[in-house]
Amino acid sequence: MPTNCGYIKLNRSPQLLSLLETDHQAFVMLTWIAVRANRETGQAMIGDWQKMGVTSEATYRRIKNRIQAAGLATFKATNKGTLATLVNISIFDINQIEADEQTDEQTDEQTPKKPTNKPTTNKNFKELFLKEIQEYGVSEKSIKEWLKIRTAKRNQESALKKQAGYFERLVNEGYEAQKIFDVLVDNAWVGIKPTEPYFISALTGGPKDVTDRLTDTSWAGNAPIDQPAIRDVRPDLPRLDAKQKRRANSRS
Q1: Would you call 93 helix, strand, or coil by DSSP?
Q2: So where are the chain's domains?
Q3: Which listed residue, of 89, 100, 133, 250, carries a Cα 20 to 30 Å from 182's Cα?
């Protein structure tokens, strides 16, 4: 697998500190995903879980589940392995380029040979996007905070049109407009994802933000990660104990 050149940004965020304190294994796997991720798709293959220091396939699955529950990445099984997709920049930011956006990395052939006097309309569209979303009752502050999270490259006209479409789809399905942007800002999510379970869970009363999900260790019980929880003990053990006691009494 070729190694991506360049760098990734590690954000000094509450989500990062919480992940480091509560789940080292998830942090290591998330780092592998960020290092391998394609900048255009945000995706990386991670099927070679042994290289990540994971001790078993069962542990590998549990780590993936925790990362996905935290809204940091999603996973899809393929015939070549597991395809991971980064969906949150609160910890790692790979400076992703959305597929429908133009980049600044143009070749000489792509550069216009004649200068044009056509003014850019992106700023005007951004203002139009702001006004249209406000008409649904979303506060101007929330929208502007989200646009800052997305950064300039993600706020191209074509990209914002796509996000506006996803937003309208969720509103038409009955989700509260302001809640959609509250979820985006609270979790530092750069995109509206109407088909992703973690996004819908946050809209329908799931944990308030990524920090809550990362600090929730109820899934582990009192057992180590690689050990079955105490709730997995067979329910018929008390009945077996009673039989053994009767046998002991009959012998005495």
Answers
A1: strand
A2: 9-93, 122-209
A3: 100
User: Which single residue is written with the structure tokens 């790692």?
Assistant: 92
Quote the CA–CA distance of 39 and 47 in Å, as a whole number. Answer: 19
Residue 207 tokens read as 């944990």
User: CATH 1.10.579.10: does it fit domain 9-93?
Assistant: no
Which of 101, 129, 91 has its CA nearest to residue 40?
A: 101
Contact 207, 171 (CB under 8 A): no
Residue pair 118/217 in contact (Cβ under 8 Å)? The answer is no
How do the pLDDT tens digits run along the chain, 252 residues long? 444 567 888 988 888 888 898 898 999 999 999 999 988 888 899 888 888 888 888 888 899 999 988 889 999 888 888 899 988 888 998 887 754 444 334 433 444 444 444 444 556 778 888 888 888 889 999 998 998 888 777 888 888 888 888 898 898 888 899 999 999 998 888 889 888 888 888 888 764 444 455 555 554 554 444 444 434 444 444 454 555 555 555 555
pTM confidence score: 0.46
